[in-house]
Amino acid sequence: MADDSPASYEVVVVGGGPAGQMAAMYSTRLGHRTALVDRGGGRAAMMQEVHNMVGIREETGGNELLATGKEQLQEYGCDVHRDMITSCSSAEDGAVRLCGNGDNYEAEYVVLATGFNDVRPDPPLPRTGRGLHYCLHCDAHMFVDQSVYVMGYGESAAHVALILLNFTDEVDLLTRGDDPEWGEDTAELIANHPVKVVREEVTGVQNGEDGWLKALEFEDGAVREYKGGFAMYGADYNNGLARELGCDINDDGTVAVDDHGQTSVENVYAVGDMAPGHNQVPIAYGDGAKAGISIHFALRDFPREPENIDEAGPVRSEEVPGIPDELLEQAVDFHTYGE
Fold first, then answer.
1. Signal sequence: where (predicted)?
2. How sure is the predictor about 2, in pLDDT bands with cuts at 50, 70 and 90?
């Protein structure tokens, strides 16, 4: 059971994916006592290869990307906790209290980066990342001039199948025995584009010697070869903590935020996949950076506002720099170059 005495920080980031790590990076480097609380796993950890990241080779996997990020955060002085936050509340003094399985935490500002879980179709399925994908903009490039499928029966599945025609002329839309739920306008689009709707259920998966998808088997006995494809069954947003704190939630389950990730609750931010927008690693990094900078503007000591100067007087030289001693020492050590 967690200790009743919370670990106190200026900023606590909940969630160790790309958005959470970048928010913690900016908060720490800008001089604020910061903790990253991460339960492990997540969508980014499942990536076989990292795509669309300039400067990062595609042979880099999600686990390696996240592990490197945590090492960097610790080098800068961020506390990284392997823990799962189970509940939270706002205190009368404005702080946010967070209860974890391992420890309790208290923060002036909280960044929620808990993401979402893709709703998986029923098996049989190809292996995630080796024939089963969820992000069109991440992975469509992999299927240029290849045979691909889209699993689903709603509007999103139909539109993803139509968009894939920009990359290949072999696109099948697999409803897997479910009745299509797209509207008449979408049905008209499908009828006027070379997308084949396959209604039979999938009964088996064939993989090549390398472990990647080779073909899918169907209940009518057909075997159709595919390089890979996309499952479009929606998302289950991990917005429980945001709801506990009273944040406004959009109809689709995302958390309502402004351009910097600020939620409807003061001092609470939401970034990455749980906020509206494209679910991309580069965008998640940008969301985290913007939130970290916004929090720094609110927390930084200087310049002292005119009304505070009237109360506390001019800033004295011994009051600067405005960074905690432990982070100051860490920064000096980090940037000490050999003579």
1. none
2. very low
Q: Mean pLDDT for the chain?
A: 94
Is the model's pTM score more than 0.90?
yes
| Distance of alpha carbon 281 from alpha carbon 62, whole angstroms | 10
Q: DSSP strand E in the chain: where?
A: 7-14, 34-38, 79-82, 85-90, 96-100, 104-112, 116-118, 132-133, 147-151, 170-174, 195-198, 202-207, 213-218, 223-225, 228-231, 235-237, 268-270
Residue 337 confidence (pLDDT): 58
What confidence tens digit (pLDDT) does each residue in 8-65 have?
Answer: 999 999 999 999 999 999 999 999 999 999 999 888 878 888 888 899 998 898 899 9
Structure-token pair, residue 206: 């064939």
Is 253 exposed, middle or buried, given 0-12, 13-18 or 19+ CB atoms closer than 10 A? middle
Q: Strand 202-207 to strand 213-218: parallel, antiparallel, or no bridges (unpaired)?
A: antiparallel
Q: What is the DSSP string of 296-327?
A: HHHH---SPPHHHHHHH-SPPGGG-S-S-HHH
The alpha carbon of 202 is separated from its chain's Cα centroid by a whole number of angstroms, namely: 30
Domain with CATH 3.50.50.60 in the chain: 7-118+235-300, 132-231
The single residue listed with the structure tokens 């929090």 is 295
What is 7-118+235-300's CATH number, 3.50.50.60, 3.30.465.10, 3.40.640.10, 2.40.110.10?
3.50.50.60
The DSSP bridge partners found for residue 218 are: 202
